[in-house]
Amino acid sequence: xxRIGKKPIEIPQAVKIEIAGQxxxxxxxxxxxxxxxxxxxxxxxxxxxLLVLPNKKLTKKERGLWxxxxxxxxxxxxxxxxxxxxxxxxxGIGYKAAVKGDELVLNVGFVHPVNIKKxxxxxxxxxxxxxxxxxxxKEKVGQIAAQIRVVKKAEPYKGKGx
Length: 162
Description:
Blueprint: H1 3-6, E1 9-10, E2 16-20, E3 23-27, E4 32-36, E5 41-46, E6 49-54, H2 60-81, E7 84-89, E8 96-100, E9 103-107, E10 114-117, E11 122-127, E12 130-135, H3 138-151
Antiparallel strand pairs: 1-6, 2-3, 3-4, 5-6, 7-12, 8-9, 9-10, 11-12
C-alpha cells in the first residue's frame, strides 16, 4: 500500500475541483490546471476532501503511480491556491540579470548575453542579484529554474555563478 497515496487531500475554500472520467480539473484564484489520471487510479471528492484510490489490486509499478498521482494532485491544488516560486542568486563581479519583455537576459561572463524565453504560465522578476521564477505549475517552475541555473552553475571554490 502507498503511504502517500492513502492520505486525503484537504480542499481549500477558494479551490474548485471538477472530475470528468479520468480528467481532473483544478481551478482557483491563481489559475487553472488539468491532468489525466491513470486508468487504474480513481479520484473521489468526499466531504471537502479529495481521495486518490486504486481501482483494483495493484502491482508494484501501479502502487508507485498511486502515490505519484496523489502528489501531483496535491501540487496542483497548492499551485492554484498560493502558487510556487524559486529564487536563484547570482554571485560574481559584473554578473547581472534583467527582464526585457517576455525574456530573461543574463550577463554572466560570456561574450554575449544569454536570453531565456518565458513559457506560458511562468513569471520572471529580478531584484538586485536574485532571480525569482514563479507560477502555478510546480513542475514548470522547477524546470525553468534548472535551465537558468545550467547557464552558469556556481563554481565550487569562490561560488561564482547562479
